[in-house]
C-alpha cells in the first residue's frame, strides 16, 4: 500500500527540492568559473557546461523529491524540472526586465530542466 504524505508537507518538500537544485547550480557554476579561469575554456565548452549544470541540478532535485514522495516519482521529478525552469525564467525576467535570448534557447533550457528532473525522479 502507498504511504500517504499529508498535503501540508508536499509544498515544503517541493521547495526543499528546488532549493537543493539551486544550491547545486551555484556550486556547479562556481566550478565552471574556476575552470574558465584556470584552463581558459572556450564559449562552446562553457555552453555545454551550463547545459550540464541544468541537467545535473534538476536531476538532484528530482532524485531528492522522488526519494521523499515514494510514489509517482517521475511525475514529481517532472514538477521539479518544470518549477526550476519557470523560476529561472521568472528571475531572469525580473532582473533584466526582458526575456533574454531567443525562443529556441529558452525552449532548450526548459526541456533540459524537464528531462533532468524527470530522470532524477525515475532514478530515485
Q: If you had to describe this structure to a student in words, what would you say it looks like?
A:
The model has no long low-confidence stretch (mean pLDDT about 90). This protein has 4 helices and no strands. It is mainly alpha-helical. Helix 1 packs across helix 3 and helix 3 packs antiparallel against helix 4.
Brief overview, please?
The protein is mostly helical and 124 residues long. It has helices at 9-39, 43-69, 73-96, 103-123.
Shape: globular
Strand and helix order? HHHH
Q: What is the typical, i.e. mean, pLDDT?
A: 88
**Number of distinct beta strands:** 0
What is the structural class? mainly alpha
Largest sheet: none
Percent in strands: under 5%
Integer-rounded radius of gyration = 16 Å
Number of helices: 4
The poorly predicted ranges are none
Q: How far from one another are the termini?
A: 18 Å
Give the arrangement of secondary structure elements:
Layout: H1 9-39, H2 43-69, H3 73-96, H4 103-123
Please tag this protein with its features.
124 residues; mainly alpha; 4 helices; 83% helix
